[in-house]
Predict the structure of catalase.
Amino acid sequence: MSQRLQLTTEAGAPVSNNQHSQTAGAAGPVLLQDHHLLEKLARFNRERIPERVVHAVGSGAFGHFEVTNPDIARYTRMKLFNQKGKRTEVFLRFSTVAGSKGAPDTARDPRGFAVRFYTEDGNWDVVGNNTPVFFLRDGIKFPDFIHSQKYDPYSNTQEPDNVWDFFSHSPEATHQFTWLFGDRGIPATLRHMDGFGSHTFQWVNANNERFWVKFHFKTNQGIRTLTSQEAEAIGGKDPQHHQRDLYAAIERGEYPSWTLKAQVMPEADAATYRFNPFDLTKVWSHKDYPLIELGRLELNRTPDNFFADVEQAALDPAHFVPGIGPSPDRMLQARLFAYGDAARYRLGINHTQLPVNAPRGVPGGSRNYGRDGHMRFDGNGGRHKNYEPNSFDGPAQSNEASGLGVSVSGTTGTYVPVRHAEDNDYVQAGALYRLMSEEARERLVANISGSLAQVSREDIIQRAIEHFRNADEEYGSRIATAVHKLRHQR
Ligand code: HEM
């Protein structure tokens, strides 16, 4: 029989009894001198860290990305893509957006699809969703939008009034609402959905030529979705349905995979494209910019410890590597600030040292002059100089920017974004509705009207219906009829 290891206190002293507290005699009260008891209770009290302010419910796994198309060097100098068969380790965290920890996986909500590539040039994070578009086009509206989706400050429940009131004042969300209340609004599992980088990014090749790019992760398991009724039944029985499914699939060796594809737009096209290519409420037509295959992403390892690797993961859209950079997308620009800031609050300044966050693809890890701070648990740079420039061969700048600068002109101020020839808030929502089969339209209308009919104020309902009507007359009228019927049934 193997020898059991000795249980110790945090300071390493042997624990003599882990079943009974120290007491004053067999019948007496517990003693303050029971250090092991006090330490154990105190640690337990501090187990929770702040949950993510959005995307709190999540599942994660590790795996790798393998290049299948070696012809990408003409668009980008990212080393990750420079050779057929090249493998890069990845971490992927899936999530729902609005619910707090414990909320069911089966909610009708966009799913986060956040991928970290541990490249030799540092971590490249694509922090996207399972939808190619978003509700908003300017980050300044994000906190208000999220407040309208989360619990009301007075009732402490999600309020249809708030969800639809905000929407009724935000016509640009019509496209994403059509996605969300359609069939793809509730994936059957995390394995059976696509992922999108959603934003437009810039790719820069070795000749310093720039392209605009959008990323698509196409599921190789096929798309499978749940109806509202199926989701309610499954979520009621097993709120962690998606977590359980992902974990079980990987454990039994059924590794889920996605084909990574890109839409690439030559730089010069951006000014004249029929939609503003930096507007996150719009997609680029696949006819205009067809998908190009890049490689295959596979998940094949469940984390040994959920808290260590998934809860402490801090993905950040600002994590670029040479060959890729931001576009002028206003949402993306706001996000470039938000995630690092969130991680410094949620996990602390040294979260970048945690194993899941450290740039493990870079030989020797990160090298810079940042020092100290709460919970610095590596060697803190040891004896090396903590300033730069220095005369002691410390790390120095590369003189290689990740992306290229963007030309700008004009006077600083607050501007409505530039509209391109076919831009308005409704055109792509209408097109999406018309793409759906009659049965899918029926489910979409039922899902929207079921939620909208719960709103207490008629003016909010009418404003919301007007957006759907502007997208497609039939779409709006069907919702209006369905809402009317539901409200008069009560
Ligand atoms: C998580 C802010 C828009 C996808 C988060 C978090 C914050 C945040 C603060 C929590 C991060 C953490 O604590 O680690 C914002 C702001 C946005 C915005 C300010 C608008 C300007 C978006 C958009 C997408 C998105 C447009 C997708 C297209 C995600 C995902 C996560 C997340 C996937 C979870 C990351 C993970 O798994 O750790 N967001 N967000 N967000 N956001 Fe956003």
